[in-house]
Amino acid sequence: PFREVMNSLLGRREWNMVCRDRIWIEGNIASGKTTCLEYFSKTSDIEVLTEPVSKWRNVQGCNPLGLMYQDPSRWGLTLQTYVQLTMLDRHVLPMSTPVRMMERSIYSAKYIFAENLYKSGKMPEVDFAVLSEWFEWIIKNIAIPVDLIVYLQTSPQTCYERLKQRCRDEEKVIPLEYLESIHNLYEDWLIHHKSFEVPAPVLVIPADHDLKKMLHQYEENREKILMAHC
Ligand code: DGT
To answer: Nearest CA to 173 among 182, 164, 162?
Structure first.
């Protein structure tokens, strides 16, 4: 309603120029980010950017995502460099609507996935150092605005069940322990504030529930999510 009132007072175009929301949807693998994005994509004036997974599975005929799962020590840096590039590309796209919702971010690529590869001994120190220098340069020199982080909080077990059901080829090798590590890194970052800078307020949505309950929760939180900045 607030947005509608301002639309009518200021005129839609002017208000849309004043008020722009950038929301990141964060969460473990198979936590339900796509469902959340699909749900909000039905709202007018929202632009939804899903993760560029198809690019990670096919860059000029190569599949860095698949290679990383098969041999993380050899291909971890390759994938993370490409993830960093494709995420940055999304972050800097000019906004065409007042609200942009994006699946994950360049931050979680680094703070969760690259960190996990390094901490589990699968990324050599030199690879991690080079990736980190790139990342630090990017966030220092390029504006990556964000108003709200929506964290879909799941148990690793739930993600594991969902992962088995969806049967993506590359992901068949993922053990429960991998999802537990990703989960712990997310919790330390977004809940306990123990590890890295959190660039925006965090809205936590419990996401172990079935689809019906999840959609209900999204509806309940609609205003909070979409009015993050205004
Ligand atoms: P959803 O809707 O919550 O089920 O999300 P998905 O499964 O569509 O997308 P997600 O986030 O699980 O990512 C797709 C695949 O890409 C998954 O196997 C995890 C992997 N992935 C995403 N970002 C990174 C990254 O920065 N590094 C690495 N190593 N893997 C990543």
So the answer is: 164
Q: Has the ipTM of the complex gone over 0.85?
A: yes
Tell me the residue type at 172.
K
Q: What is the largest CA-CA distance in the chain?
A: 57
Residue-wise pLDDT for 52-85, tens only, equals 899 999 999 999 999 999 999 999 999 999 999 9
Active site residue 136: no
Which residues lie across from 24 on neighbouring strands? 102, 149
DSSP 109: I
Q: Does the reported pTM lie above 0.95? A: no
Closest CA to 78 of 94, 91, 67: 67
Query: Is residue 106 lining ligand 1, measured as CB closer than 6 Å?
Result: no
Distance (angstroms) between ligand 1 centre and the Cα of 195 equals 21
Contact assessment for residue 35 and residue 214, using Cβ atoms and an 8 Å cutoff = yes
The answer to whether the beta carbons of residues 143 and 65 sit under 8 Å apart is no
